[in-house]
């Protein structure tokens, strides 16, 4: 999980293959794209096609008896954006704001303190990172600072071979325990909530996949 300090975007979208506050909700940002096709003769132009982000309420997501397959397919299927927003998540707005309030404080720590929070062996995927990532031009991105951490496990593994092979995943967390001790609890609280919501969504994705496979294997199958 990464916390980027320079730009505050209150949306949170859940995207597969990884992990605006209004009444405590995730992602009310609407994402769309347009596709047009036109003959060279300019005889006609097809209408723009707009696709919106699929949104599922937290209460529906938490109900494991509810069939969310149509929404899962709309969001993650071949014609979807690959994004599903979850709204009305209890506690999200407060936890998010609590963590964001710490952003200027960590960015304002003395240089010697922030340098101690850097982890070059993980390619700066843990702890503090500023000016380490490069833009397309090859120039260092100095317009933002980021803080990376695993919100669930401080020490993902003690297996030296795994740490060496996957340093960007398996290195231990680095927290400013003496200079900003509240960062750890705030980061973990929000990160755990995001993970829990993702797991709920994963449950419904599994259900959708199982039913789809059964329908393929047994055409007469129905729930």
TrEMBL record:
Top-level taxon: Eukaryota
- PANTHER family the record matches: NON-HAEM DIOXYGENASE N-TERMINAL DOMAIN-CONTAINING PROTEIN
Q: What is this protein called?
A: Non-haem dioxygenase N-terminal domain-containing protein
């Amino acid at each position: 999980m990464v916390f980027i300090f320079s730009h505050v975007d209150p949306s949170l979208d859940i995207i597969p293959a990884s992990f605006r506050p209004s009444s405590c909700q995730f992602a009310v940002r609407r994402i769309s794209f347009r596709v047009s096709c036109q003959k060279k003769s300019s005889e006609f132009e097809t209408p723009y096609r707009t696709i919106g982000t699929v949104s599922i309420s937290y209460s529906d997501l938490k109900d494991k008896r509810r069939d969310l397959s149509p929404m899962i397919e709309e969001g993650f299927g071949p014609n979807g954006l690959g994004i599903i927003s979850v709204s009305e998540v209890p506690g999200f707005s407060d936890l998010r704001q609590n963590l964001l309030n710490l952003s200027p404080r960590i960015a304002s720590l003395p240089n010697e303190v922030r340098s101690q929070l850097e982890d070059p062996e993980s390619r700066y995927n843990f702890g503090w990172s500023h000016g380490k990532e490069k833009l397309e031009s090859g120039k260092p991105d100095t317009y933002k600072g980021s803080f990376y951490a695993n919100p669930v496990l401080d020490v993902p593994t003690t297996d030296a071979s795994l740490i060496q092979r996957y340093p960007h995943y398996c290195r231990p967390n680095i927290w400013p325990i003496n200079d900003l001790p509240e960062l750890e609890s705030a980061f973990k609280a929000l990160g755990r909530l995001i993970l829990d919501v993702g797991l709920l969504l994963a449950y419904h994705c599994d259900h959708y996949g199982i039913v789809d496979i059964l329908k393929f294997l047994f055409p007469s199958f129905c729930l």
